[in-house]
Amino acid sequence: MTTKTITLVELSSTLRERLQEYGSQYGSLSRLSYDVRIPQTTLHSIMCGRRTHPRPEIADKLCAHFGITIVAVEKEVA
């Protein structure tokens, strides 16, 4: 699996995409839930878009599992 570098703004949509890919590849999120120790209902809420900003510890576990690196982006001041 390749590592993807994203900004914090892209985190929610990227996690949603990865969860949908995982679900379609393996049939359910129960194995992922077990592997990363996150409740399946939480994963489903993220995948369906009901939870758009997962808690940092949840996001960290999912990013580590999917090989996602979050980079900080500074806003330029005019």
Short description:
With 78 residues, the protein is mostly helical. It is built from 4 helices and 2 strands.
Give a verbal description of the structure:
The protein is mainly alpha-helical. It is 55% helix and 10% strand. It has a two-stranded parallel ribbon. Helix 1 packs across helix 3. The radius of gyration is 13 Å and the shape is globular. The protein starts with a strand and ends in a 7-residue tail after the last strand. The mean pLDDT is 78.
Strand tally, please?
2
Looking at the structure, what is the overall shape?
Answer: globular
The oligomerization state is: single chain
Helix segment tally: 4
The fraction of residues in strands falls at 5-15%
Structural class: mainly alpha
Radius of gyration from the alpha-carbon trace, in angstroms: 13 Å
User: Order of strands side by side in the largest beta sheet?
Assistant: 1-2
Largest sheet: 2 strands, parallel
Q: What separation lies between the terminal Cα atoms?
A: 39 Å
> What series of H and E elements makes up the topology?
EHHHHE
Helix content: 55-70%
Overall pLDDT: 78
Q: Catalogue the unreliable spans.
A: none
